[in-house]
Structure formats: C-alpha cells, structure tokens
Specification:
The chain is an alpha/beta fold. The protein contains six helices and five strands; from the N terminus they run E-H-H-E-H-E-H-H-E-E-H. Helix 2 runs parallel beside helix 6 and helix 3 packs parallel to helix 5. The N and C termini lie close together (6 Å). The structure holds 1,3,4-trihydroxy-5-OXO-cyclohexanecarboxylic acid.
C-alpha cells in the first residue's frame, strides 16, 4: 500500500479562520478528510501531521523513509521562505516530495517569492487553493501506485 505523509507547518492549524480572503474557509481537518477519502479510493493511505515547530517538521522528514512513506506532501508555511534546515532534511532523505501553497505566493510580498524547498521538490503547486493538496496527492499516487 502506498503511504503518503502530509506535513503542514506553522499557522496552518488556523485554516478556516486565518485570513480567509487569502486561505479560504476550509479547515485543515476538512482538507485532511478529503485527502483520506481520495487515498482510500486509490488503495493508499495518508498520515497527516501539523506542527508550528521547525524541528518537528525536520524530524518528520528525517524519519519518513524509515516509517515507510513513499512520498511527502508539504505546505511548510513561512518556513518555506526561511528554513535552510528543512531543505537540508529533504536533501538528506530520498523520499520524493510535493510542495503545496494555498495562495499564489508570487502575487504576494516579495519575501514569499523564494522557496528554499522548490529546487528539491518533485513538484510544486501554488495558488490553486486547498485543491492543491488533492492535486499533489493525485500526482504522488500516479508516481507510486498502490499494488
Ligand atoms: C502558504 C504561503 C506562505 O507564504 C505563508 O507563510 C503560509 C501559507 C500558503 O499555503 O499559501 O503560512 O504556505
């Protein structure tokens, strides 16, 4: 069975009430429920972890291979733009990852235009709202179909 780790970084626990004009009104629980349903239809499984702490995200990435994950979907929130340590964690493991941003970061402040992660990602989905998570999961499951 294909297993996908879905990581969400700082402030994404506030989805639904956080800047709804930018991030919409869906909660993270709504998003994860849809990913679980989609994975279930495809004979796959998702495990979702949200953390506001950089080191916890790094530890999840470090452990992903040993935990048997085939792919990672990550919205690293603001750590996208700041965390060389998170990039280094992805460089150290061989698990392919898909970077998701709900908003179009390129249409926002210039400090959001650079991602430390994108250069290592299998794919990047930006600005398609919460649909981006499902598109990333679809991409991951096409690359790693459940047998
Ligand atoms: C975000 C974009 C980031 O710039 C921001 O810090 C977030 C959310 C997005 O999903 O659009 O927390 O990753």
């Amino acid at each position: 069975m294909t297993r996908v780790l879905v990581l969400n970084g700082p402030n994404l626990n506030l989805l639904g009430t956080r800047e709804p004009e930018t991030y919409g009104r869906e909660t993270l629980a709504d998003i994860i429920a849809r990913l679980e349903a989609l994975a279930g239809e495809r004979g796959a499984a998702v495990v979702a972890v949200q953390s506001n702490a950089e080191h916890e995200l790094i530890e999840q990435v470090q452990g992903a291979k040993a935990a048997g994950f085939d792919a990672i979907i990550i919205n690293a929130g603001a750590y996208t733009h700041t965390s060389i340590a998170l990039r280094d964690a992805f460089a150290a493991v061989t698990v392919p990852f898909y970077e998701v941003h709900i908003s179009n970061v390129y249409a926002r402040e210039s400090f959001r235009h650079h991602s430390h992660l994108s250069g290592l990602a299998a794919g990047v989905i930006v600005g398609l709202g919460t649909l981006g998570y499902e598109l990333a999961l679809d991409a991951a499951l096409r690359r790693h179909p459940s047998r």
